[in-house]
Amino acid sequence: MIGFGFDVHRLAEGESLVLGGVTIPSPLGTVAHSDGDVIFHALVDALLGALALGDIGEHFPDSDPRWKGAPSSVFVEHAVSLIAQHNCTIVNIDCTLVLESPKILAVKFEMRQNIARLCSIPVERVAVKATTSERVGFVGRSEGVQAYVICEVQPR
How confident is the model over 98-121, as pLDDT tens digits? Predict the structure, then answer.
């Protein structure tokens, strides 16, 4: 079973930039109810989508004050637990981040490790790629960041 997830957040000064569980020094960070980790948010939607279990907003509504400032790893852990409850396992995860800056090459492996640990799969089955939007659109103007994630889940 295949799952696909997408997330986008605005960027603003004075906010933290957390991507793949890594806090990255940047003058701009995500505006969000939680920590705004677009990679983890898209990952949650991909995992939930693989088994048609709804989306991140159904499980963690931004109207609920419990999730204010919450680390997105909590959301991933929840999705992973639902996969296990359905007697399934995660086969692989492929993430694409769209961001003009900062560059993430130096922390991509740490992001992969974080995802692998949370999902209980080998790091070799987790891809994190990054691209820019060539200065086109809201991402190109550094107004936002996007992430796309696809995953495969199979019965045990």
Answer: 999 999 999 999 999 999 999 999
